[in-house]
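Running this now, will post back.
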Amino acid sequence: MAAKQPPPLMKKHSQTDLVSRLKTRKILGVGGEDDDGEVHRSKISQVLGNEIKFAVREPLGLRVWQLVSAVMFSGVAIMALAFPDQLYEAVFDEESASSKTPIRLYGGALLSISLIMWNALYTAEKVIIRWTLLTEACYFAVQFLVTTVSLVESSRIATGAVLLLVSRVFFILISIYYYYQVGRRPKKV
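Update: finished.
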């Protein structure tokens, strides 16, 4: 008896068959949302979880800077909302001739930014941390420019305003430093 040769194996092209791929993913339980609302791309990520914070290495002092920024923004916002005249006098060494409304609006805007800063303090995602640092640096740059133009227009140099300008340059440098440090790729060990 001659041994019968088995028929040649036919390859099933299931990777190109979209319906077959969807059925396979459904059987494995990946691709859909779980109870937490996360979409898992593979069974491994479903089992291990998508904890990004373990991969992020934060620069030294980042969380301290975020805390200082949140406290500083909140403090100035509350002062601008509650005591607008005193805030203006502290910076420009003169009484405010206009209404208190612009200073209170400034305080409201600062309070909104401070809420973002407080929320960024508790996140581990690099993108959110970087965006808040960039927001902070832009705010300080705009405040530096506005204060400088105001001082040039009034042709008075107030000690409080000069200290404000120097501190803003310092805060811009710190925010930009952390912005680039958070965005750097970690060194391979």
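The CA atoms of residues 138 and 172 lie 8 Å apart. More later if anyone needs it.
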